[in-house]
Amino acid sequence: MRSFINILFIAMLQFWTGSVFAQQTAVNSLKHQISSDHSRLIFDLSAQFSHRVFQLDNPPRLVIDISDARLNGKLDQPSSNHPLFKKIRSAVRNDKDLRVVVDLKKNGIAKSLTIPANQSGGYQLMIDLFAKQDGLAAKPPVTRSVASHPLLSKRTPSPNPTKRPSARPEALAAVHNKPVKKTPQRSKDVVIAIDAGHGGQDPGAKGPHGTHEKDVTFAIAKKLAALIDKKPGMKAVLVRQGDYFIDLKKRMKIARKAKADLFVSIHADAYDNPSVKGASVFTLSNKGATTEMARWLANHENSADLVGGVSLVDKDDVLASVLLDLSMTATQEASQNAASKILGSLKQVGHLHSRSVQKAGFLVLKSPDVPAILVETAFISNPDEESKLRSVAHQSKMARAIFNGIDSYFQQAAPAGTYIAEQGRQHVISRGETLSGIAQQYGISMQKIKTTNAMNGNQVRIGQVLSIPVDG
Prior knowledge:
Elements (H helix, E strand, L loop, with lengths): L1 H22 L1 E10 L3 E8 L5 E6 L4 E6 L2 E3 L13 E9 L3 E8 L3 E9 L6 E9 L10 E3 L5 H4 L15 H9 L12 E7 L16 H18 L3 E5 L9 H10 L4 E8 L10 E5 L1 H13 L1 H4 L2 E2 L2 E2 L5 H30 L11 E3 L11 E8 L3 H8 L1 H22 L5 H4 L2 E4 L6 H8 L3 H7 L12 E4 L4
Parallel strand pairs: 1-5, 8-10, 11-12, 11-13, 13-18, 14-17
Antiparallel strand pairs: 1-2, 2-9, 3-4, 4-7, 6-7, 8-9, 14-18, 15-16, 19-20
């Protein structure tokens, strides 16, 4: 009888314990990411929760307390070269709460955001830690919910906006009486976003002698940026400005934020067969474009963004689909033209793996309104090509070839209102071209080209540079 009572007691205890666990919020995983200016912790939780974030000194620590929660997964530990995190550990607090402690290399400024993670009721807690600048004190952590997320708050303005105090009359008078200097407007630069592939804890491919792809791509990207910045009317934006990891989608977001006219992603290919060699140029495949268009139309966050300067958020489904389709078609055509110019230029530097522009579904190329190409400069898995990629001289040659292709593309397709467009365009005569064909290509008359270039006849020669007038 006593043994039966003991068994019954144990069973009831297990049932009670299981019920308590079932009511607690489960922390299913904790991951972290590194960005250019901050480090992020991502908690996946099973239900809505309350939490507290604070920092401790001596030694520096970031503490996250989650009420009535238990750890149901593993903690993703940071690498030894992580810029801020040393180690992540957890413990049970007050018999029911979960405390996660991140040992830091230095304190920073923490901000947290809670958002619904999926339709099944899960939630995510994202905590961003920004490294403190010298002389700045750490601000208290900011906790936000999804309702205060900047992407949503701009669509739901406060019903009682705070009025700003009016300026004093004498101050306004002083402003109106002050002479205003008019500065002449400068024509816009063509903006080229240069994406050095991989970075940080993602080294990319590795050559037989230990060369990392991330180092080669960054070296070439910096040299290319320098060439672009020297060209009047052109401006380079380095997507990655150091050895750190950037998410693929964020790379394109950086380009779109910079209002880039072209996105160039630089890589160094690898293959099992070490004899494979040569450069390649890729654009987005039709299948990849179709998939991305569907994603944009389905994602409300994307639809609120601008596509080619037009917001889709206030358009019906059919019109939004048509506008996005037109934008992506134009973008793909521009990408193909730019890729062809760069491929032709790379031919002068070395061996080509493919003599035509290739198409693939690379995630980094999936932007609806920024022409994007991916350049595989060589096969880092080939010992000879790895040796060249390590050479500063060859890196400069590769950067120059890519630049020449970019320059050639914008001489023919500079956006309206840019300095290059207003200076006119140039066309370098290639084998098989005729004056009539060039006039048809640019939509102007043969006579206009002849007059601009002081030509007496219709004959052109290979390598001849023609100035193409902006209007016909």
